[in-house]
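If your schedule permits, I should be very grateful for your opinion on a structural question. What I wish to show you is a protein chain and, alongside it, a tokenised description of its three-dimensional fold. Would you kindly read the sequence against the tokens and tell me how you understand this chain to fold? Here, with my thanks, is the record as I have it:

===
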Amino acid sequence: KEGEHTKMLTRVLLLAVGAAALVSHHHGLRPSTALRMSAEAMSPVTKEKIEGMITSNKVMLFMKGTKVFPQCGFSNMAVQLLTAIGTDFETCDVLSDDAVRSGIKEFSDWPTIPQLYVNGEFVGGSDIMMEMYQEGELQVFPP
């Protein structure tokens, strides 16, 4: 019975993939485009929420986790860099808000998290922050 169940599951998965391919082909779309179309665009409420956080905080970091308990290495590095230069900053834990988690990527047109904003301007992710820190450019942000 287990072998039959596996065969049936495989057939169902193949049918689902085939159906998605047919729909994509029928509409002249590549499969990746069809999948992206199924994702909802950022709502006006989410956009307003993100804009509010960015404009009301001189230094704003969208990250996974919190300052005290970062949930990924890149977010931890971003927190450590900002702490090292002695700047005050606020954070938003994108893991606690799916709309902000996907919305911030659309808002900045940047695919990864963390994301740093200073004076309302998008700076970049942890890799750019590290580069700026090493070049002495991150330290220009006032504490």
